[in-house]
Design goal:
With about 375 residues, the chain is an alpha/beta fold. The chain has 11 helices and 13 strands. It is about 25% helix and about 15% strand. The longest helix is centred in the first third of the chain and has 27 residues.
Length: about 375
């Protein structure tokens, strides 16, 4: 299942202009092609249309039309209905038709199933499933919050998730190259903050916070704390130097908007708790974040944060990545639908079955 996230990664590739010699060759080829087309057009127009060996429609239509792909969204995520976006307008992905109309279940090229909305899957169109149709399993929650996995073996053809080894890899965000830019950091008067809506004393992140707050002040926002400024996470966190980007569970590649939006978009240094430092460094520069595993105790981490607070030069080093990169935060859910459609188009007749979904996703 590796390597299927390539359409997304291709956005990061640059392009090079043709060298002068290749450009001359290209111009010559274009000239020959245009003359050939002109001669063909003159020939067709001077023939008796009733006896012409070429269909008249060829004058106005391309002999091969672009392939149109239909992706059916079986469950709108979490039952929230919304207008489907235009893939061409939003992401320059052409030939994609998105629909929630289940009457298209037999003619759709692919059906997209959002995992958190799957119950006992009795409403799946099993008995009317065309042999060539792709069923795509879509999930952006961690294994700790994904029920039914063991019952879904042998049903789906492709996976789409935040994991790099998904058939369709769509991370919560990513960095992309840009022209070298000046680093601009908002003025910050406050030190550490955390926005949290799911508070559970049994969670490792809450237990770590309880120890950390004994050594440093931490402002809490959300359901169990203060109200957000202007109801905006970014505007609120932008006033702080550090943000606790603590994931609700620790799994491979599970790096969510807590890093990409809450911290990076707010120009706050993320203090992360999630997968290993090595896993984070697959996605972001090693000097762009602080990992809790870098310190032997919460007390040592608090001491380091106070040191950075007093040393602005050392603190600013955590933003050197901004000279070369900008942040993309994935748009839920239009980007996922369109990425699925684009991948279906590119894959053609490639077909497979995920025999043990649970073994893969929980690994």
């Amino acid at each position: 299942m590796r390597g299927a996230g390539l359409p997304l990664l291709e956005k990061l590739r640059g392009w090079r202009p043709c060298r002068r010699g290749r450009w001359r060759t290209l111009k010559s080829q274009l000239l020959v092609a245009s003359l050939t087309c002109a001669m063909l057009l003159v020939y067709v127009c001077t023939q008796d249309l009733l006896q012409s060996p070429l269909p008249f429609s060829l004058l106005w239509e391309s002999p091969t039309k672009p392939r149109q792909v239909t992706v059916l969204i079986w469950y709108e995520p979490f039952g929230k209905k919304k207008r489907l976006g235009d893939c061409h307008v939003l992401f320059n992905i052409t030939g994609c038709q998105l629909s929630t109309n289940r009457s298209l279940s037999q003619e759709a090229d692919a059906i997209l199933f959002h995992h958190r909305d799957i119950g006992d899957y009795v409403d799946f169109p099993m008995d009317k499933r065309p042999a060539s149709q792709k069923w795509i399993w879509m999930n952006f929650e961690s294994p700790s919050h994904s029920a039914w996995l063991s019952t879904l073996g042998g049903i789906f053809n492709w996976t789409m998730s935040y994991r790099v080894d998904s058939d369709i890899f769509v991370p919560y965000g990513y960095l992309f190259s840009r022209k070298r830019a000046k680093i601009i950091i908002p003025r910050k008067r406050k030190l550490v903050t955390w926005v949290i809506s799911n508070w559970n004393e049994d969670h490792e992140r809450v237990q770590y916070y309880n120890q950390l707050r004994e050594h440093i002040d931490i402002d809490i926002y959300g359901r169990y704390g203060m109200d957000l400024k202007y109801d905006s996470i970014v505007k609120t966190v932008s006033e702080y130097k550090f943000y606790l980007a603590f994931e609700n569970s620790l799994h491979t590649d599970y790096i969510t908007e807590k890093l990409w939006r809450n911290a990076f978009k707010s120009s706050a240094v993320p203090i992360v708790m999630g997968p290993s430092r090595y896993n984070y460094e697959m996605f972001i520069p090693r000097n762009s974040f602080i990992h809790v595993d870098d310190f032997s105790s919460p007390r040592k981490l608090a001491m380091y944060l106070k040191f950075l607070d007093r040393n602005i030069h050392m603190y600013r080093r955590y933003f050197t990545w901004k000279k070369k990169f900008d942040i993309h935060v994935t748009s839920f859910w239009d980007e996922h639908y369109c990425m699925a459609c684009g991948t279906v188009k590119a894959a053609g007749n490639r077909y497979q079955t995920i025999s043990d979904l649970a073994a893969w996703f929980e690994s």
